[in-house]
Amino acid sequence: MSREEQLVSLDVRKVRIDGGTQVRLQIDPSVVEEYVDRICSGDVFPPIVVFFDGQDFWLADGFHRFRAHSRLEHPTVECRVLQGTRRDAVLFALKANNTHGLRRTNADKRHAVKLVLADEEWSKRSNRWIAEVCGVGHDLVGELRGQLADSASLPKEGVARVGQDGIVRPAGRTTSGPVPATGDRVQIALSAAEKFDRCLVALKKLAMAVEHLALVPGGNYLLALRLDDFRTNLRLSADYLAAMRPSGRCDLCGGDGCQFCSQLGWLCPAVEKHG
Fold it and tell me: Which of the residues 62, 78, 192, 259 could staple to 47 if both were Cys, CB 3.0 to 4.6 A apart?
């Protein structure tokens, strides 16, 4: 291990997950639940990877593992800490997701390419460089670059770009204009998913406490009489929270808001059901 990386047990509250370093389209709740069960059964997972910029620890690899530890309310999580910025974490995440971990969907691949093309610096790199980083074909990069250039004035084929060798090469045509906003409201919504998870855990604990108070010998008689009502209300509350939990950026609009995502820019089970 180099001097620039360390294995540490880090306070989960110090791990930043709100910086756009999650390069998959969404977290898969079923995978998080599977990891929770496996951790409870004694399975040991590899440490998550974070980048430290001198102030913040940006999560780069291991979002599903981190969610599982958070669901279990573990105070610390094993981390492989690398020195670097938030953008370094994004670049690491892009490469990590195309080489290991959960199988990516086509939507995940397109989302990864769009993240790179939305970056003012990275969008100037060649299609082949972006394809290598994202683990996709360069033809997909060209397709998405063309779509985004037509709709948002991103660098297109004629713009000078940085090649794989780091050399800037000019081209014949130029498409100028601002890079679209990355959708801060979407990142805020996605970062709130952790709070939804904590609320769901709290509701489960509350349900267990209610059952105990109502059913143990000498328990609360009035509570026992209304136990079915409490069960129903707690279940409905949990179902509502689960349905509204932000799960990922809308792939159709990229976070700008459209009819499919009810103009939110992000998805949740309730939106996907009625979209």
Answer: 78
